[in-house]
Design brief:
alpha/beta, 7-stranded mixed β-sheet, binds manganese (II) ion, 7 helices, 5-stranded mixed β-sheet, 22% strand
């Protein structure tokens, strides 16, 4: 397989460590690209849900693949989200090609691009976004599990699969218009700051559209997620586009299991995280 080399790739909301995460598909996608810059825009590792002790081999393989990309020369910027906000203590830490931060402003071919996860709007967009935050937690995970069981049954009878969470979210969308609120808020702020592009994640809704207000206009982009939409943003030849993973063409290759080393209970990992959190790194002089 020839790797594609888009200049910049943005992914978000992978939610490693949850049942909903499509790690095998993401692994397949990551192995198909060789970008100069990879931006992981929040909620990559779902630390909120770590207590479940679910962290299969394929999820670790995703982390290994990202590290592999780092060592092969891809610059990786990890922007923290609300499900991995524990890592915000390390903001602006840099290890070679790898950076952790809260937000990024970069210039790409003369255009100013502002990238952040988007949970910062949760407290400002009244009520509606909070529903999503809750949905993003345990309830959402349960919904995905039930959905998988239903789909398994549907497949057994040769019926088309269905997406519960998409249905629920579409309902929520109609009721409170939170997606619109979110996109509008992000765009208004970006216009105020005079940026050309604003890139978010968080709401699991891939998007690419120009938003115009009385003060100006901006291109709003959202990389979607790897729970339902399996999307990323790619920048190549001066253009941004949404890339959707082709599940139909994807052969479900089982990720090689290295038992018992990889197929682990996360207790050690969790302990490590907590230890680090208790001792934030000192700023380098
Ligand atoms: Mn989020």
């Amino acid at each position: 397989m020839q790797k594609r080399s888009p200049e910049v790739v943005v992914i978000s909301d992978v939610h490693l460590g949850t049942y909903g995460c499509h790690a095998a598909e993401l692994l397949h996608y990551l192995r198909s690209i060789n970008p100069r810059l990879l931006v992981i825009n929040g909620d990559f590792i779902d630390i909120w849900n770590f207590s479940k002790r679910y962290f299969p081999a394929s999820h670790l393989e995703v982390i290994k693949e990202v590290m592999h990309m780092v060592s092969n020369g891809t610059r990786v910027i990890y922007i923290t989200g609300n499900h991995d906000e524990l890592l915000r203590k390390y903001s602006d830490m840099q290890l070679g090609n790898f950076t952790i931060t809260d937000k990024v402003v970069m210039e790409i071919n003369g255009k100013m691009v502002w990238i952040f996860h988007g949970d910062v709007f949760d407290s400002t967009t009244k009520g509606s976004a909070k529903m999503l935050a809750k949905l993003g937690g345990h309830g959402y995970d349960l919904l995905i599990l039930i959905n998988r069981m239903v789909n398994w049954t549907l497949e057994l009878f040769g019926r088309e699969k269905m997406s519960f969470s998409k249905k629920v979210k579409n309902g929520v969308k109609k009721a409170v218009k939170w997606i619109g609120d979110f996109e509008q808020t992000a765009a208004e702020l970006a216009i105020e700051k005079d940026y050309d592009y604003v890139i978010c994640g968080h709401i699991h809704q891939p998007q690419q559209r120009i938003i115009e207000t009385a003060k100006g206009k901006v291109t709003y982009l959202n990389s979607g997620d790897w729970v339902e939409n399996l999307t990323s943003l790619e920048y190549e030849h001066g253009e941004w586009k949404i890339q959707t993973f082709d599940t139909k063409a994807f052969e479900k290759v089982k990720v090689r299991k290295e038992k018992p080393r990889l197929n682990v209970v996360t207790e050690e990992v969790m302990l490590y995280m907590h230890t680090l959190a208790a001792n934030p790194p000192r700023k380098a002089i």
